[in-house]
């Protein structure tokens, strides 16, 4: 009888284990990918998770890729693009997703897809989430649910995660990380804070949160804003005279000019870089390269009188009219009129063509355009209704890092939108002891960038020659540092 009980118990455990491993919802499994002719190296799942809105429901769209290495052991990583209001399919299509997209064989045909040898799904289970509601393929039947902000987005994404892990309980024991770039410098720490609070409260399911990584992410208006002028000078974009005049009249307060002379000198610096691709100063502007761009970058204009010059509103475009590039490269001060929205200097054609094809939407279990609306790289319906209701992210970082969560803050060193100079300054300002002195790191037997390591598991890292979207410019190097960091190995 004892032997029978033991055998039965072992069999029951095996049955439950097998059931758990196969717990991913069958209806979310993707069986074919339009434009891709081949065998997927791992399972792909996609669909909607409905969370409570006000009123009604918010339908958040995700695309989940099972790790190609060891799904049961590899981390689960959530990826968030920024904006605010930009789709995480930006990362999927152009950065570290499973495919490389190429032009179709004929004009008007779908892009062709080939496997990406540097996909982050090589070493991790990864979730691409369109958040907040109204971004990308996420939608609501009530337009009032597109009115949101930093705090609401963090709350909604946390609610998504709790429901997602209920759908995929086999991944609850895996290490979980939150990642993103650009305005996700706000999304990531605010979401991480909510996750940690939920863990302390004992919310179920219990997420095995270990840390976060942020690329070229905003953190603090003062540090980020003060980083531009030194970046321009260090990259030989402004003269010594302009830089010295800025130093003499501003006394380091480039973000918030203390006098009119300082303000005018800083505006000279911004005027000098007006025609550059601000996302990568080495690259040409993709869209309408023959046109003369007449607006100043970063939302600045010679006629402004407000202080400070740099704020998130001016940089990222929520809450108030901005000087934005139109698709025809003229300038408008009313974001509502920009339809469709195109990121300046960025070619979003492949993603737009693919994700607005109804066969693609059906294959990935996304709602048709008649329900969810057309896919845009950045959703105007969210951008114009977004409120930045948090301040500096530095207190969030200090709290998370002090509680033992790992943090990798990385940046392409040729991005002028969120330059590494500001990021390096705020990470240093946290006051942690340096445990790994400034040094180069190697990828493919070449110097790939530089890093500085601090105690409490904080690392600041640059990627040499990369712009704002690091994996787009340096895919192999990105997979290298990503793998080493997730595996807990030296970079």
Model description:
The protein has 491 residues and is of the alpha/beta class. It has a domain at 222-345. Helix content is 33%, strand content 19%. It contains 17 helices and 17 strands. The chain has helices spanning 2-21, 89-94, 150-167, 184-201, 221-226, 228-234, 240-250, 260-272, 312-316, 349-355, 358-363, 369-372, 380-383, 394-402, 420-429, 470-473, 475-486; strands spanning 44-52, 57-65, 76-80, 99-102, 112-115, 125-129, 139-140, 148-149, 176-181, 209-215, 324-325, 331-332, 386-387, 406-412, 434-443, 446-454, 458-463. The model is unreliable at 1-21, 288-306 and 318-339 (pLDDT under 50).
Number of E-state strands: 17
Taking Cα atoms only, what radius of gyration do you get, to the nearest Å? 23 Å
Low-confidence stretches: 1-21, 288-306, 318-339
If you average the pLDDT, what whole number results?
Answer: 87
Helix content: 25-40%
Shape: globular
Major sheet, described briefly?
A: 11 strands, mixed
Total helices: the number is 17
Structural class: alpha/beta
- Beta strand %: 15-25%
Could you tell me how far the N terminus lies from the C terminus, measured between alpha carbons in angstroms? 55 Å
Short description:
By secondary structure, the protein is an alpha/beta fold. The protein is 33% helix and 19% strand.
Q: Which labels suit this protein?
A:
alpha/beta; two-stranded antiparallel ribbon; 17 helices; globular
Show the helix and strand layout.
Layout: H1 2-21, E1 44-52, E2 57-65, E3 76-80, H2 89-94, E4 99-102, E5 112-115, E6 125-129, E7 139-140, E8 148-149, H3 150-167, E9 176-181, H4 184-201, E10 209-215, H5 221-226, H6 228-234, H7 240-250, H8 260-272, H9 312-316, E11 324-325, E12 331-332, H10 349-355, H11 358-363, H12 369-372, H13 380-383, E13 386-387, H14 394-402, E14 406-412, H15 420-429, E15 434-443, E16 446-454, E17 458-463, H16 470-473, H17 475-486
Parallel strand pairs: 3-6, 3-9, 8-13, 9-10, 10-14, 14-17
Antiparallel strand pairs: 1-2, 2-6, 2-7, 4-5, 11-12, 15-16, 16-17
